[in-house]
Amino acid sequence: MGQAAYLSKHHDFYSNSQVGFYIAVPDKVRWPVLVLAILASVVGSQAIISGTFSIINQSQSLSCFPRVKVVHTSEKIHGQIYIPEINWLLMILCIAVTVGFRDTKHMGNASVITVMLVTTFLTSLVIMVCWHKPPLLALGFLLFFGSVEALYFSASLIKFLEGAWLPILLALILMAVMLVWHITTIKKYEFDLQNKVTLEWLLALGDKLGMVRVPGIGLVYTDLTSGVPANFSRFVTNLPAFHKVLVFVCVKSVPVPYVFPAERYLVGRVGPPGHRSYRCIVRYGYRDVHQDVDSFETELIESLAMFIKLNASYRCSEVSQSEQLEEWEPGLTVIGSNTLRDHASYDLQDSVQHSAASVPAADSPGGTGLESNSSKQVRFFIDSLVVSPEADKQVAEELEALAAAREAGTAFILGHSHVQCKPGSSVVKKLTVVGYNFLRRNCRGPDVVLRVPPASLLEVGMVYVL
Questions:
Q1: Residues 428-443: pLDDT tens digits?
Q2: pTM score of the predicted model
Q3: Which range is the signal sequence, renumbered to this chain (predicted)?
Q4: 3-state secondary structure the chain
Q5: Which segment, 84-93, 159-168, 192-201, 232-241, is predicted with the most confidence on average?
């Protein structure tokens, strides 16, 4: 307001040695104001950097941006993150803008007031969608604030060719990257849905000549929440063997900031109990920190053990073959709540009962279920008051099989995808696929994002024809 008052009275401030901001400041306080302006620019730049990191991280969690490295810089303050690739990109853009414009006047024109206008439009949507207010209230908010901001925006349009085109160009490039990644990711998921394998095919593999169940646990990562993914069929076709304990793991990012640990794991069974195949959906919020592979593997096995015990307490002792077909993949169960932990507990005694199974595990902060021996183990035991003797024996065998598979080792099976266009596709679709393949080759792979150890990684090549 002070600058506007000065400029309304003095119209001859243009010169090569004077800047409109500093000429409006008295000579006695010019240097303190210069220091204050520098500090304000530092605060503004840090706000832009932090906001960019947060938006990129949330967009990546919602599959709207290529995978980049996210470093959590604080163990106490959640959400304090640093993204090296984005930081380097911002530095390069700042240097390019400074070298390209070489004039503070043109650099000032490069910052347009569109942020306030976009925020007003989004706030009007929040009023209707999130706050469930009448549309007339949202429209009144938009007209009242949007009209004022539209005046500022129209005034800045005359500066478009002098530098204001730069943020608009950067926004268009960023939007194109997000659209290419998000649309192609959705198409890949639809391809997986259309080409998934039936459960009958999976259950028939054990009867085929030459098919071998090798010791260990096989974690097959997939985006599907039901059925058998196509990359597993490709793996079995080329290598006629799979692990004795098979777990289809689906890591999902849900549109909430945090997911409570008690609600993180959803576990279900794929096939009858004797097949030793399970499905686990792991849910993370867009501000959750992904676990390291040791703690994730330990919690996953604990969740499987608790599910086996809980499932036995509700499963009928005798089920006909036709009923078993309907129960081969029932609904998933949330593992980790207090109710489930009452049904599935840990044996802290040194002696192992006949119905106990020992599973090696990494150290946990709470120390629950850990022995003092050099090979730390988690012991699962069965409460005989909950299940019948027949179910008790079945659960003991299933837990022992899980423990033996855990001791044999864990293999992580991931799909290595390559996207191709169908013959006769449009130019826009071809450019989208080319852009996606370029981004996929130059961003972090799923094995790095999921923190899979290279020694236990098995990648299965998959060609997606979209």
A1: 888 999 999 998 888 8
A2: 0.68
A3: none
A4: CHHHHHHHHCCCCCCCCCCHHHHCCCHHHHHHHHHHHHHHHHHHHHHHHHHHHHHHHHHHHCCCCCCCCCEECCCCCCCCEECHHHHHHHHHHHHHHHHHHCCHHHHHHCCCCHHHHHHHHHHHHHHHHCCCCCHHHHHHHHHHHHHHHHHHHHHHHHHHHHCCHHHHHHHHHHHHHHHHHHHHHHHHHHHHHHCCECHHHHHHHHHCCCCEEEEEEEEEECCCCCCECHHHHHHHHHCCEEEEEEEEEEEEEECCCCCCHHHCEEEEECCCHHHCEEEEEEEEECCCCCCCHHHHHHHHHHHHHHHHHHHHHHCCCCCCHHHHHHCCCCCCEEECCHHHHHHCCECCCCCCCCCCEEEECCCCCCCCCCCCCCCCEEEECCCCCCCCHHHHHHHHHHHHHHHHHHHHCEEEEEEEEEEECCCCCCHHHHHHHHHHHHHHHCCCCHHHHCCCCHHHEEEEEEEEEC
A5: 84-93
